[in-house]
Amino acid sequence: MADVRRQTDRRWIWVGAVIVLVLVFFTVRNLTRERLPVRIADVERQSLLSTVSTNGRVEPTLNYELHSPIATTVEAVYVQPGDVVPAGKLLMKLDDIDARARVAAAESALRTAQADLVAARNNGTPAQRDAAASEIERSSLERDQDQRSLDALAHLQTTGAASAAEVDAARQRLAAAQSTFNAAQQMAKNRYSAPDLARAEAAVNDAQSSLAAARQALDQTSVVAPIGGTVYTLNAGRTEFVQQGAMLLQIADLTHERVRAYFDEPEIGRLAVGQPIVIKWDAKPGKVWHGHIERVPVTVIIYGTRTVGEVLIALDDADGGLLPDTNVTVTVTTSSQPNVLSIPREALFTQGGQPYVYKVVDNDLVKTNVHIGTPTLTQVAILSGLKEGDQVATGTTSGQPLQEGIPIKAMR
Q1: What share of the chain is helix, strand, coil (3-state, %, to 5)?
Q2: Which of 24, 117, 120, 309 has its CA 20 to 30 A from that of 7?
Q3: Is residue 100 part of a domain?
Q4: CA 364: distance to chain centroid?
């Protein structure tokens, strides 16, 4: 019996020893295992700006394209590209021989149309009216003569000296004479109908319009500056032939410009009228211009391989330094959050739509839900869940995923 008790005690001693060894093993392992190296960042206050950058093209607000009014040659050019000129300055002279001929032809056509209208309103020209009066007088005399002949034959018929046939023939001649007289009177009074008068008036209007156009074309052969500005495009030189409608030059007031920018479709919803813009031109490094959104997109278009919306940007400090049609970079500030708590974007995670971070507490990671504001490209505003001075994990140096409750080795 004593031997059995000693064997039982010996087994319990061994079990206890094993348990102690296991506990010692795990305690030593826990104290000596390598901690997970984690990059951390401080929760701090700063001003966050959310921006979007894209490309744009400069265009003058007041821009004039001057075109050739006729097909002709250039007689003289008085400016060069880049010249600043006052309004009304003669810039170019075109050969005007054809233009003068067109004016002369239009003046002749107008005089003819006006004469026709006067004739229509006065029932004919003076010669036509004189001829009509002569015709009335002649037909009146013939009618009176035929009337007397008829009266004489009718008297002779009563005495048997004239036959009934002769009287009938005289009566027919009188009727024809009366008809001729009536027609002459009608022609003298109503030579032109109402439609004839309307056509004559329309012809005068057309001739006046043609003359005005011919004179305008003649005036435009002397190409003058419509505004004070800079000649920035010159497409024709002296003695060159230009087609009708060909652009001769462009002039603009470069102190009043705007930028037409092209924002990708996903960014359009962040844009609003009045948002501030910074403009840069690679040709002038270090120089910036400022503006604001004047008009947001109303539709999207295909621009190369992109689907974009066109945005008009008014320049607030245009100084003539931006040339028309140059390509620029524009950056719009879509939101501004002054003095807010923020963390790097890589420290923010989401699960089921809920944003959270791994907060560093006593060298351990604690999963902490947060409420965020508008993010920028690199930072996220924290509205609640963290306080200034807290530390959050942004990732591991070994590529392992972050986990709650594991010991870490913090690294900057």
Answers
A1: 35, 35, 25
A2: 24
A3: no
A4: 59
Q: Digits of tens for pLDDT over the chain (412 positions)?
A: 555 555 666 666 666 666 766 565 455 445 444 678 999 999 999 988 888 999 999 999 889 999 999 999 999 999 999 899 999 999 999 999 999 999 999 999 999 999 888 877 877 667 667 666 677 677 777 877 878 877 777 777 777 777 878 778 878 887 887 777 776 667 666 677 778 788 988 999 999 999 999 999 999 999 999 999 999 999 999 999 999 999 999 999 988 899 999 999 999 999 999 999 999 999 999 999 999 999 999 999 999 899 999 999 999 998 888 889 999 999 999 888 889 999 999 999 999 889 999 999 988 899 999 999 888 888 999 999 999 999 999 998 888 888 887 788 888 7
Asked if residue 412 is part of any domain, the answer here is: yes
Closest CA to 146 of 127, 173, 164, 121: 173
Tally DSSP H helices, then E strands, for the chain. Answer: 5, 23
Residues 72 and 111 grouped into a single domain = no
SS3 of 165, please? helix
Residues 200 and 231 in one domain: no
Eight-class DSSP state of 221: T
Q: Report whether 347 contacts 39 (CB < 8 A).
A: no
Q: Identify the domain containing residue 87 by its residue range.
A: 63-95+221-252
Number of separate domains in the chain = 4
* pTM, two decimal places: 0.57
Token digits for 250? 């462009």
In b/e form, how buried is each residue of 139-158, taking b as 16+ CB within 10 angstroms? bbebbeebeebbeebeeeee
231: domain CATH number?
A: 2.40.50.100
354-361/349-351 β-pairing: antiparallel
For residue 122, report the phi and psi dihedrals to the nearest 5 degrees.
-105, 20
Domain's final residue, options 149, 183, 213: 213
CB atoms within 10 A of CB 51: 17
Same domain (yes/no): 135, 199: yes
Q: Are residues 243 and 369 in the same domain?
A: no
Q: Are residues 242 and 313 in the same domain?
A: no
CA 32 remoteness from chain centre: 71
Residues 387 and 298 in one domain: yes
Q: Is 101 part of any domain?
A: no
Closest by Cα among 355, 364, 345 to 405: 364
Torsion angles phi and psi, residue 256, rounded to 5: -130, 95
Residues 320, 263 share a domain: yes
Are 123 and 158 members of one domain? yes
